[in-house]
Amino acid sequence: MRVVILCGGMGTRLREETEFRPKPLVEIGGEPILWPMMKIYSRFGFHDFVRCLGYKGQMIKEYFLNCRVMNRDFTRRLDSPDNPEFHAANTYEPWSITFVDTGAEAMTGCCPNLNVAPPSGRLNAGWQPALHLKLGQHR
Predict the structure, then answer these.
(1) Closest to 97 in 3D by CA, of 36, 44, 46
(2) 3-state secondary structure of 51
(3) Helix (H/G/I), strand (E/B), else coil: 91
């Protein structure tokens, strides 16, 4: 089962932090907010995630593309095109993460001006018609 996590909001209540990075990358206790959230789901057996990206979504993609290099010691031979040699054991979670661009102006709640009700069984607070249709393409 996939866990869909909305990351599209501008984080206006954390403006002093979110002016330079998206809210999911704001650090608490030395980790971005998104990491412990995903670890909680992982403890209960959920390892397949969909991150719905909006405001500064490219920074979230860059974080996951570079997190291995940025958080571990490694040796890189500049005269070799090979990947770096990492010195610590792989300590990363067994996660599969799909990144979906929902647009920089995407709202994270339902779109009341469209007069469209969410499908039965869906949470009203996190559903919007365009996002629902786009996620259907990733099944």
Answers:
(1) 46
(2) strand
(3) coil
Which token pair is 69?
């290099």
Q: What angle do CA 21, 41, 68 make, to 5 degrees?
A: 50
Query: Is the overall model pTM greater than 0.85, yes or no?
Result: no
Q: Is residue 69 classed as helix, strand or coil in its secondary structure?
A: helix
The arrangement of secondary structure in 2-106, i.e. its CATH architecture, is Alpha-Beta Complex (3.90)
pLDDT digits (tens, 9 = 90+) for 20-77: 888 888 888 888 888 888 999 999 999 999 999 888 889 999 998 888 777 788 888 8
Residues 6+ apart with CB under 8 A from 57: 7, 8, 22, 99, 101, 102, 104
For the stretch 110-129, pLDDT in tens is 444 434 444 444 444 444 44
Dist CA 95 CA 26 (whole Å): 21
